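FORM 7B - TANDEM STRUCTURE REPORT

SECTION 1: FIRST PROTEIN
SEQUENCE AND TOKENS:
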Amino acid sequence: MDTNTLPSQPGPSQPGPSQPGPNPEPLVTLLAAGHVADAVERLNEEEPEAAAAALARLPPERAVEILDKPELLDPAGIVAALPVERAAPLLDAMSADRVADVFRELTEPPRALLLARLSEEMRQAVQRLLSYPAHTAGSIMTTEVLTVPDDWTVARTLQHIREVERTRETVYAIYAIDRRTRALRRAVPLRRLITADPAAPVLSAAREGEPVTVPPLMEQEEVARVIRRHDLLAVPVVDDARRILGIVTVDDVIDAIVEEGTEDAHRFGGMEAFDEPYSQLGFLDMIRKRAGWLCILFVGEMLTASAMQHFEDELEKAVVLTLFIPLIMSSGGNSGSQATSLLIRALALGEVKLRDWWRVALRELPTGLTLGGILAILGMTRVTAWQMIGLYDYGPHWPLVALTVGTALVGIVTFGSLAGSMLPFLLKRLGFDPASASAPFVATLVDVMGLIIYFTVAMAILSGTLL
């Protein structure tokens, strides 16, 4: 295979660009030297076609090392821009889970062409990984697992590791399996294996008790909790017969959680989750991802106008009440957003379960009353100070105006805390992502109820005076 030139014209089996573009040699020189992380960062600055042209001129080992890094932002675009004859061997040399990630993003025709060119072993591994739902243990695991029969010695196991280490993504532990049933028996940490007696059975170096395992359909967030709880570097994924399907490593979990956290941050900000880095998102995609939520929130805010129209007579009689509407609405929205943020995180970490909703409500009720009381004191102090200093005249009934503001703040902040804490539970109960309880959505909900609470309190306190 000639790795120094790219075909100038793409044929039926060449999904790459027809023109090599600018001279890639300076970029090739840069990518060939130094740390692979620096090479990946530099390659992320290039368009897929330029990146592919540079990778095609690298030694295959170096190109595989770069493509295997999860920090590479658009591996599918780069692979699709390479000739199939060049891309297929590189994919064959990569880790199976990374290749599966690439194929999830590939479109036709490169996807079918490349899949057909993979080795039988890699093709089966990729198809198996692609069969699992996204964000599950099966979808993020690597199938390159180091297993040995449970009747081997430590010396024979160490020799086997030396022979196959280069074909395995990681060797955090060796898994001893039953020779007959292929079921997992024990996990042997590499450190304990190295320090064990070479003549002893491999099981003598294993940890006591059954190894920690996860099923292939377990959500990746739960896998992360298992790894953290048991302080593992990798956890085996097993089927119902306890046969090893693969392992989820700690770096796989970190990558998955970073991606999940990014999606949650987007949703919590009141927009659809982005599938691509911000710098690579097209203008139309940006509009599509953000416009839908903005329209929904705008329609919700229309209810605020309807609430104000309902109290139009009260506003005409006591115009002074309008001065505190922004204060009242923002306080309720802020308290609701705080509670929502806390509960979304607690649900994600497993600190609270759906069945704990009433405990959370009982906790948020006094919290909301206390926080509302603090803001009420500040609000009433502000009205009193402005009146006494002469910065603003709230009229002869200013003490009642101050009392109205204070009482409304207590009610609105309490409602915001309760609504903000219960909404994630409701969404999860209905099968939605709790992160969909975005801060703007909570603020919109609390705004409408805040106005109703504010004017209801005002009518009760100011009736017979200003109203």
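SECTION 2: SECOND PROTEIN
SEQUENCE AND TOKENS:
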Amino acid sequence: MNENSNLVTSTQSIVKEALHKLGYDDGLYELIKEPMKFFKVRIPVRMDDGSVKTFTGYRSQHNDSVGPTKGGIRFHPDVDENEVKALSMWMTLKCGIVNLPYGGGKGAIQCDPHDMSKTEVERLSRGYVRAISQIVGPTKDIPAPDVYTDAQTMSWMMDEYSLMNKVNAPNFITGKPLSLGGSLGREQATALGAVITIEEAAKRKNINIEDSRVVIQGFGNAGSFIAKILHDKGAKIVCISESRGALYNPDGLDIDHLLELRKEHGRITPLFDDLITNEELFEIDCDILVPAALANQITADNAPKIKAKIVAEAANGPTTQEATRILTEKDVLLIPDVLASAGGVTVSYFEWVQNNDGLYWSEEEVNRLLREKLVEAFDKVYEISQNRNLDMRLSAYVVGVRRTAEATRFRGWA
């Protein structure tokens, strides 16, 4: 079984347990355990050299009982059906946790945009929208950026959808640039949401953010923004990592300097010789550990060595179930991915609302509402965890799946 199959099966097992905790039977689980609709499309693209290359794309709509499905589109050479299915299920959970009127969706194209020209990526983006145009829309399924897609990709997709439907449709897609109806505060929403949950966890652990020592695995968009926000709040970022290794300084790293290097060079670890491994990173004495890279990084092998009091999952699925059990027994406060990374979809919802209303908010208002949503969500998950003696992941799944389960029952689907 490959890694992405494991992501699906592990997610299904926790969803099943969460439904049982809520008093639902296996009949409802049988409906929710798989996406209600899954699409696989073939996209022909005229390349710059005149040849035609055909790409495979996916769109998963997990459950639309609550409302239209919502979720990003990633461009990645290794993406497959199982990954897209698992990600769409997580989106349902995220939307439920922060109480959004959405179900979960996810899309992807098997490609490496780094090996393509800008015009080739544009043709592929537009071709994908043409291929899925009948199943998406402002009240059906609302895409957004994800891995290796950005505001420019969303602009092409919105334009193609608008041309096809002969209507200006900014509410078809989120993550757009401000000039096309994007929302202030969207760029760093995922990172800010993670930081808000870290602050709430720190209160429970009596940790002062200003005095905290933080380790961040991954220095991409999420990891770098989290590092910057926490650094500006006075935290000491003692370690950051990329795939080739990690920079460690017990006295704290100069995050502003590292961000400048990242902007100039892309990757920063090749610029330094004195690196530690990503395995050694997990053994560092710190208050807060933020896995913001890949799935299955914290396992039964390294979980016992973790010294952090808080683990905030900014990545998707970075901790295995056995590792979750070990961390919980060690009294580590785990902020699960479906809670820690819910800031992005929350501000995407705000963008959709602003597009529908034609009234746009200040960045201060967006950030205020984001904090309100995330604090409420954290409180709810933490309270259930404490009152019902559940680990934080299972508690988050109980909160996340409840609204979908209720809506499914009220509709008479199960």
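SECTION 3: OBSERVATIONS ON SECOND PROTEIN
Residues 316 and 337 are 6 Å apart (CA to CA).
The chain has a mean pLDDT of 95.

SECTION 4: SIGNATURE
Preparer initials: ____
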